[in-house]
Structure of NADH-quinone oxidoreductase subunit C:
Amino acid sequence: MTFDSPRSTEDPPEATMDGDTTGHDEAQRAEEDQRAAPADEVIGVRQGMFGVRGTGDTSGYGRLTRTVSLPGSTPAPYGGYFDEIVATLQDALPDNGFGESIEKIVVFRGELTLHVRREYLPRVARALRDDAALRFELCLGVSGVHYPDDAGRELHAVYPLMSITHNRRLRLEVSAPDADPHIPSLYSVYPTTDWHERETYDFFGILFDGHPSLTRITMPDDWRGHPQRKDYPLGGIPVEYKGARIPAPDQRRAYS
């Protein structure tokens, strides 16, 4: 009687044919992708979950620590039609106008964002609108963002643009320091930004130079502060409204 010899519990190494470098190529591509991935720009550290300070931890997240970061610059090639947009804009801004105007290029979650130095914003927007190969005719609005930890760049304005001719989209992002919150208005390039810039000024305090009527659009004219900034109180304070004073929620009269 014969018995089969016991098989090893370890699988034998797979035979590799001469010239088969599939595994090596995949590892090399992964390493290259890791090197090409943009490093995030860490601008601060956030403690807890809800930003509450000076009170006991009742949420269970008091010891949570998270970094506040922004996407870093993306190296070329950018993919899709993004490369064509960047190359065309470089030609539309001669004499190193592109290098002077654009701080960085970010491709994040399938969106192309051009970070523009604020003094060159109208020039870049006009080139994007007028060049036949670009034709970004429509500005979809203005969004304000407040990053208190981004020293010297606390206030950001984001302009999403769309080319109806070529069915393409991109975003322009401009920053300004809290101590000098001035950004050139795009009203002369995109008149539809009239109301959007007023709203961004109202809620974030960004001053759009050259705007024909930069007044509040939602809050009363005599309102103090800008409610969507991160440093604006969330509640529990007296609120002034047209000369009247509304007490804090914990000081109001109860009728029950």
Summary: The mean pLDDT is 82. The radius of gyration is 27 Å. Helices lie at 22-36, 82-92, 97-101, 121-130, 193-204. The longest helix spans residues 22-36.
